[in-house]
Amino acid sequence: MKSGFLSLGIALMALAIAQPLYSQDKPSEKLVKESNKVINKGIDKLFGKKKKEEPKPAQQKAEQAQAGQQQEELNAQQQQASAEEAKPQLKWSKYDFVPGDRVIFEDNLEGEENGEFPSRWDLVTGNVEIAEFGGENVIMFRAGAPSIVPYFIEAKEDYLPDVFTVEFDLYCSSSNFVLYLYDRKNQKHGSPTGYTDLEINYYHMDFSTSNSDYPDKKNLAKRRWMHVSVAYTNGKLKAYMDETRLINIPRIDFDPKGITLYTYHASDEQLFYVKNVRIAAGGVKYYDRVMKDGKIIATGIRFDTGKSSLKPESMGVINEIYELMDKNPELKFSVEGHTDNVGNDASNLALSADRAEAVMLTLIDMGIAGDRLSSLGLGETQPMDDNNYPEGRANNRRVEFVKI
């Protein structure tokens, strides 16, 4: 078709030029113009050139309106971003738990027999037994308002110091589990008045006049493992669910002397399980420790069994070390891992090295310069306590931050 238009134009031009041969007159201007139009049109079609169409008024208005709307949206986004920057930002230190540095009671249920009463505890009421749940030993709270206390030879005495921490893992439910801060079997003669118990369910903690919900409670499973931590310092009490502080009381009106674990509601559908109970003494500030002793001994950095992967509850200690190093840029540490004597020497040495390195790398990831840290594994070669007892082994499983 394109070649046809071109051929027709050329023919007309030839006719216009040839016209003088048969006539005295000049070629017709009209004929030349028509032939030129045909030729140009044929060339345009042949090479794909199209005449630019002027936009219609309605189309112009629509395009302008669309451009204006896009600009308005961009302005609104910029204003929102500016408003977000200007808005006050919330900074909340919701997890500042640091375990005591000297373990005075530890029960990880090693060597316990299924169906027996847990050997490191004493019964107050009800029915409590060792069971296997999820492939590991747990203390199962059954019927009859089950209640237990740690077994201490001098249990009638105050076995909690002025600064202490209590920790345990709890498989919870929508009913309440209770931690009493006195020994309800052995210390009845001096039982305090008023509120002495921390009540816990799957999303909530309650102690005396203080209570609080977990911030993301709508997404919590009612039946799940949680880590419960309590810190007491000369009258001040804090309690934590996993990595969030829910209770913060500046002064309580009694002196905690022991502990009791208790639940008044236990059914086959809502049994409570407990494991990894630890009571520890101590709470000296890390800066004071490193200035006095040249090192910080941390028994609160926890790892998965036989691995170098950190447990979430370790971050309280690591956060404190980070803050210390951030505020004191001259401090440098050798991060040194230690184990108990369970297992063979070679594997313990390798495990302690991996764990020390994991702690070091965590601090580097948080922003501490790599040239301020080194790591070393010492295995079981430098025990600080007696490996024949659970508490001694717990004290020997530690990470030290040695000033260099």
What does the model show?
The protein has helices at 2-18, 29-47, 57-86, 286-293, 315-327, 345-366, 390-396; strands at 102-107, 121-125, 128-133, 136-141, 147-150, 163-171, 177-180, 197-200, 204-207, 210-213, 225-233, 236-241, 244-249, 260-262, 272-281, 295-298, 333-338, 373-377, 398-403. Strand 12 (236-241) and strand 13 form a beta hairpin. 29% of the residues lie in helices and 26% in strands. The longest helix has 30 residues, at 57-86. It has 404 residues and is of the alpha+beta class. The strands form 3 sheets. Strands 1, 3, 4, 6, 11, 12, 13 and 15 form an 8-stranded antiparallel sheet that branches. A 7-stranded antiparallel sheet has the order 2-5-14-7-8-9-10, with no helix packed on it. A 4-stranded mixed sheet has the order 16-19-17-18.
Throw out a few tags for this protein:
single chain; 404 residues; alpha+beta; Jelly Rolls; 60s Ribosomal Protein L30, Chain: A; 3 domains; seven-stranded antiparallel beta sheet; 19 strands; extended
